[in-house]
Structures are given as structure tokens and as C-alpha cells.
Amino acid sequence: MDETLYLFKNEYEIAAYAGEVLTKRVGDIIVETIVSPTTEQLKDYGYKPLVNTQRPDEKPGFAIETYYENGKTEIKQCYRYVPISE
Predict the structure, then answer these.
(1) pLDDT of 22-51, one tens digit each?
(2) Range of the domain at 73
């Protein structure tokens, strides 16, 4: 596997695949275990490549917040301005 793939958890959290064993469960029963998954198997489990967007310029009175968008084939790292409360 050449590229790092990530699992989308929520708007503020993703997790890179780190070599862990993958398991599929039906209820409490493990129905499949994969020890060294291929890129295609990781994608079947929901892992996707991360695409970075351009970070915007600083803007007075605002902080820049990083968040993630879960697309069909990729996870996009995005940015937005958040007002700084005084």
C-alpha cells in the first residue's frame, strides 16, 4: 500500500490506517478477519484518501478552523473562518 488511507469519524476527526487487523461483525459474531488488507479491501471497509484544500489567508477577527468532508471516494480537508469572540 503506497498511499495512506483514512477513516472518517466525524467532521473534526479522521483516523489513518495503522496496520490494525480489520474485522467485520454481524452482531457479536466476527464473520471476517483481514490481517494485511490490500488497498481495495481498506476501501471496502470505508477507508479513503485524504485530499487537502488550500488554507485561506489570515483574516483579522477570525480564526481558521480545520474540518473534514466525507465524499464518496475521498475525504477532503477543508477550512473555514470562525469569528474570535473578544
Answers:
(1) 988 889 999 889 999 999 999 999 999 999
(2) 5-83
